[in-house]
């Protein structure tokens, strides 16, 4: 037996006794930090990463478009309070995922987008590599943070940093760039294992300062017409019991933002949702809980708000204070800790809503509820939005575990007012940006993460952004029923091109058969032209527990321009005649 040559010695020194690679380290790092599901679209260079993740016990849900996979990861983060993970290919796939990443950041949903990328040395010299792009630079402006892993031994650290950043403080979207060369790099298995770490307390509690709590109590105690506004941040916090105890013990009326519906049941006696305009206009002290004074709340400005109102704001992000209005009593901390501190430091009876104020709002609520009931009684033909939505409301009322996903213009605005919610975090909609295209991604993630039935109430235009994911729903046999409000247009379907040489800009196909789309993928399709048919179809579809779609044929003349935000259009839009002046 001869001694090894110098060349053999050098080669053997470069080969680990028990090797691993970047692919395995990514999967090991995710598993170590309790990531159990990945949403994504495979391709170069992450196909084998998805295969390996699946082989190692991580559930991989494959989509038809990265934007929808990203939306799924984002809402998974919202529902679980753990970062949802989206996996995309480089360049175009990465860019497709950015819409969801930015939307997650805007809505404060914890999410990590992991993308493969091209060789750094080729990208930096712009030598024309496959799908060449400086993805880190592109991502930074759209998310909470962006990181790149440049060495295989840094994979564990990169994933730990991304997950912690996504969930700590105010949650948001994080981008993690892993070049193909890093994924394929070989490292000794023992050495690689030592580079991985499990996060310790990634979202630590942030306690409010005692003097800030006392200040808030003093402001609330002096109110004659107090009001609590619950945002989706309150729902995300899962401090359900603490929030309910505070509201019920003080008697303060509350208004829920759309994704906070169900935090307390919509029929709760203190809900002022059906008297919202009066509540905002007259409240003298407003407590914002996980809600921001952005466009959805008219920036806290008159005439929608009492110009003399004082604001108490509960938020984990100190820089949110005073963003639109002066905050008299900022309460910086996580919502659960804030409400525990309020309960501890408030004296019995110190904060209470005067009876006259509660009765005034209750009277207006009763009046508006009666008006809505009269509107819902009308059974017009062709079918109107209200008739279809009432049918949906009545069916899901018997199944409160059902998640409602909702997007569109009129489909969104009207469903928000018609479909009552009684369980927290069961209404998922377009959120702060009002972005269309979230529907199928949100529906898939809700079904995957919870196993409960999902009803996605979609405008026909909004559905078009993610409709191909019907195949994903059928492929995974998910309990998702998609209900399309089909009035044949964006806003409405009766607009006319004055030149007659093609459809008007807002016109879609009124004869579209969305029900046949899902049948092509093996699901059950229904076509409904009356509320009674909607009721029968939805009842049957939910009972089946499988993929289904109901195409609700709505009057093309039903609907308004831009739903409830037509005032944001420039003057004249929506009334254009095509005639020169």
TrEMBL record:
InterPro entries: DHS-like_NAD/FAD-binding_dom, HACL1-like, Oxalyl-CoA_decarboxylase, THDP-binding, Thiamin_PyroP_enz_cen_dom, Thiamin_PyroP_enz_TPP-bd_dom, TPP_enzyme_TPP-bd. The gene is oxc. GO terms for molecular function: oxalyl-CoA decarboxylase activity. Residues 22-137 form the Thiamine pyrophosphate enzyme N-terminal TPP-binding domain. This is Oxalyl-CoA decarboxylase. PANTHER family: 2-HYDROXYACYL-COA LYASE, 2-HYDROXYACYL-COA LYASE 1. NCBIfam families: oxalate_oxc (TIGR03254), PRK09259.1 (NF006721). Residues 213-342 form the Thiamine pyrophosphate enzyme central domain. Residues 415-552 form the Thiamine pyrophosphate enzyme TPP-binding domain. Belongs to the TPP enzyme family. Its cofactor is thiamine diphosphate. The keyword Phosphoprotein does not apply.
């Amino acid at each position: 037996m001869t001694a090894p040559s110098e060349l053999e010695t050098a080669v053997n020194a470069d080969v680990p006794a028990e090797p691993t690679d970047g692919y395995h380290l990514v999967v090991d790092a995710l598993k170590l930090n309790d990531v159990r599901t990945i949403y994504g679209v495979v391709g170069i260079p992450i196909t084998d990463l998805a295969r390996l993740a699946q082989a190692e016990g991580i559930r991989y849900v494959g989509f038809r478009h990265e934007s929808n996979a990203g939306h799924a990861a984002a809402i998974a983060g919202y529902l679980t309070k753990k970062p949802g993970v989206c996996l995309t290919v480089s360049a175009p796939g990465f860019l497709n995922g950015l819409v969801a990443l930015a939307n997650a950041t805007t809505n404060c949903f914890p999410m990590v987008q992991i993308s493969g990328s091209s060789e750094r040395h080729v990208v930096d010299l712009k030598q024309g590599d496959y799908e060449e792009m400086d993805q880190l630079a592109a991502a930074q402006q759209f998310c909470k943070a962006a990181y790149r892993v440049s060495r295989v031994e840094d994979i564990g650290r990169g994933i730990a940093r991304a997950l912690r950043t996504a969930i700590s403080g105010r949650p948001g979207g994080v981008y993690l760039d892993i070049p193909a060369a890093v994924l394929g790099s070989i490292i000794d298995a023992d050495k690689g294992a030592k580079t991985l770490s499990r996060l310790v307390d990634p979202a630590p509690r942030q306690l409010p300062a005692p003097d800030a709590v006392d200040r808030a109590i003093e402001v609330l105690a002096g109110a004659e017409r107090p009001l609590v506004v619950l945002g989706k941040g309150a729902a995300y916090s899962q401090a359900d019991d603490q929030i309910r105890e505070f509201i019920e013990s003080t008697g303060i009326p509350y208004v829920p933002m759309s994704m906070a519906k169900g935090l307390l049941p919509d029929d709760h006696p203190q809900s002022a949702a059906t008297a919202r305009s009066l509540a905002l206009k007259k409240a003298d002290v407003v407590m914002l809980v996980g809600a921001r004074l952005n466009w959805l709340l008219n920036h806290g400005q008159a005439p929608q708000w009492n110009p003399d109102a004082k604001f108490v704001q509960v938020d984990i992000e100190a820089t949110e204070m005073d963003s639109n209005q002066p905050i008299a009593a900022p309460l910086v901390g996580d919502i659960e800790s804030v409400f525990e501190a309020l309960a501890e430091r408030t004296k019995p009876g110190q904060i209470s809503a005067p009876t006259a104020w509660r009765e005034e709002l209750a009277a207006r609520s009763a009046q508006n509820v009666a008006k809505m009931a009269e509107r819902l009684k009308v059974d017009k033909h062709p079918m109107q939005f209200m008739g279809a939505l009432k049918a949906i409301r009545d069916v899901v009322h018997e199944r409160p575990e059902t998640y409602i996903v909702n997007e569109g213009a009129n489909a969104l605005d009207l469903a928000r007012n018609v479909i009552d919610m009684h369980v927290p975090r069961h209404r998922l909609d377009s959120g702060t940006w009002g972005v269309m295209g979230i529907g199928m991604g949100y529906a898939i993630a809700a079904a995957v993460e919870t196993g409960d039935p999902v009803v996605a109430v979609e405008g026909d235009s909004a559905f078009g952004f993610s409709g191909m994911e019907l195949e994903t729903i059928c492929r995974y046999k998910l309990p998702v029923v998609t209900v399309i409000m089909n009035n044949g247009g964006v806003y409405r379907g009766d607009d006319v091109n004055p030149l007659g040489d093609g459809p008007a800009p807002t016109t879609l196909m009124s004869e579209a058969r969305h029900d046949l789309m899902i049948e092509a993928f093996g699901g059950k399709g229904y076509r409904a032209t009356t509320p009674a048919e909607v009721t029968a179809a939805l009842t049957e579809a939910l009972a089946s527990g499988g993929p289904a779609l109901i195409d609700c044929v709505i009057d093309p003349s039903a609907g308004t321009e831009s739903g409830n935000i037509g005032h944001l259009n420039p003057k004249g839009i929506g009334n254009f005649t095509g005639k020169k002046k």
